[in-house]
Amino acid sequence: MKLNVAVFFGGESCEHEISCISANQAIKALDRDKYNVIPLYINKHMDIYYGEALEDLANYYDLDALCSKLEPVTLVKEMNKVSIVPIKSGLFKKKSLGTIDVAFLVMHGTNGEDGTLQGYMEMLKLPYTSSDVLGSAIGQDKAIMKLVLKAEDVPMTPWFYCLVSDFMEDESHYIKMAEDLGYPVIIKPANLGSSIGIEIAHNSEEFADKMKKAGAYDFKLVVEKMITELKEVNISVIGNMTEAKVSAIEEVLKNNEILSFGDKYEGGSKASKAKMPTKGSKGMAATSRKVPAALSVADQKTIEDLALKTFKVLNAYGCVRIDFLIDKKTNAIYVNEINSIPGSLAFYLWQEVGVDFSSECDELINNALKRYHAKEKKTFSFATNILSNFRR
Description:
It is a single chain. By secondary structure, the chain is α+β, with helices and mostly antiparallel strands. The protein has 3 domains: 3-128, Rossmann fold; 159-225, 2-Layer Sandwich (Dna Ligase, domain 1); 228-253 and 288-376, D-amino Acid Aminotransferase, Chain A, domain 1. It is 31% helix and 25% strand. It contains 12 helices and 16 strands. It has helices spanning 16-29, 63-68, 116-124, 133-140, 142-151, 164-169, 171-181, 204-214, 261-265, 297-313, 347-351, 357-376, and strands at residues 3-10, 35-42, 48-50, 71-78, 81-86, 99-100, 102-106, 159-163, 185-189, 199-201, 220-225, 230-239, 244-252, 289-290, 318-327, 333-339. The strands form 3 sheets. It has a 7-stranded mixed beta sheet. Strands 14-13-12-15-16 form a 5-stranded antiparallel beta sheet. It has a 4-stranded antiparallel beta sheet with strand order 8-11-9-10. The chain is globular and about 65 Å long. The termini are far apart. The model is unreliable at 268-279 (pLDDT under 50).
């Protein structure tokens, strides 16, 4: 019997459109002989929609028009089943549009990749394909992620973080910290991805201005020493708590001082101001890259080992992408960050080692089911009620 696989995507984050592209790729890759594929779109107001129009990416160029063609729904847990239920009732409407066996999460950013949606899945007792609540939350917050990696002696470029409110109260203190790092520095919103809100400061005057600009995107900022002669490489990891494996390594080619949104999703073009990325976008698969990256055997092994260590230390699960920085002057290798649900689910890196996207999806679903069944065997509550002895 086929599994009912619901693909969740969209959301209110700045990476909404990228999530739509990644999900569309996954929807096409999922094997219809094994799964009943159910796209569930979450709009920017966090409403859930169901409908056939979700399977054609061409419908997404006008998101308001798309939603008008769809059925607004909610998820209802009844005993051991989770049903997709229309919000609008009617005499001739179905009470349920089907049930879900596995949640295939293709959400990027806030309230999708940060543990929020994962917590909802835990409440519904649905198997899901990403890292759990803890792993997702750590991976989303760059400051917390770096603190955890630092505790495990994972190499990173010199850095610090601060709250925007603290910076506004005492700019001089943080300007001094940036000077101690040494310019140029990169300023990043702690909880965003896709290079959104990232700024570069080359001196103290720029630093104060760029901190305020980046602060428009988040309450917390991460400041890192910038490597001026840089090679950026990425690797994907798929696995669980007990076993994991690595993909091919890519070298990312960029047209700007940093890898921009346009470099990532529009094949090196400037970021579009349209509602969706440029027509025909392939998501992260459109990024200019060299695969496999030109690396020595020793450097490749170092990156693979650090990727597996980072995956385990950050409590990751499913498919992630881990980004590395290589200082071409010193050949030092640094972990940059983890992407808990990477754009395009990094399928282009797995294809290079003989794993097609359909097989990758199978593996993510199997891992989700294994984790769910393993958790079912654990004890989380007791069949007692101390309140039965309560007397007023």
